[in-house]
Amino acid sequence: MPAEFLKIHPLNPEPRKIAHVVKLLAEGAIVVYPTDTIYGVGCDLMNRKAVQRLCNILDIKPQKLDLSFICNDLSHISEYVRRIDTPVFKMLKKLLPGPYTFILESSARVPKILDVNKKTVGIRIPDHEIPRVIVRQLGNPLITSSIKNDDVILEYTTNPEEIYEDFKHQVDLVIDGGAGGNVPSSVIDCTGSELVVLRRGLGDVSQIE
Known about the structure:
Largest sheet: 10 strands, mixed
Shape: globular
Low-confidence stretches: none
Order of helices and strands: EHEEHEHHEHEHEEEHEEE
Strand order of the largest sheet: 1-10-2-3-7-4-6-5-11-12
Number of strands: 12
Helix content: 25-40%
């Protein structure tokens, strides 16, 4: 059965529609949704069957899982990463929500959740109401990847209707939150003694480099 296509207001997400999305995610759905950068595809981090299915859709082996977590706020992050040094915390507080992915050392909880020995995790707090409201009501992060093909961002990622046509037989729901972007987030590695910009994306990294 083809995926559901659901329009949600990007600035004032309708509570009834958000509740519907949260219910589907809790039941193991794979969902395409807007962010402050590119449309993402993800599922409830706590649903192992859904995570396995997401890996299959993205053609990723669970042992090589390298996906990001969408969190709601900084307090939410603390559950999934080890202690954050004060300078790094100040940077996170300054830049988030925003178009950044921060690579941090994972807490002991992450391998238990994913059944994979992940020493690091990518954390996102997008500056977009839809994913943040979903995560807040779900109570768990979304494990997520950008809509892409062999690491090349596709042109059609800006158009949710075209995304739907491409993914309607792979996922359960595509959220239309308006036109998306085609520039990914900036990726910053915070695990070493110095911050390292792994990818220059939409976010300003001039103060880090």
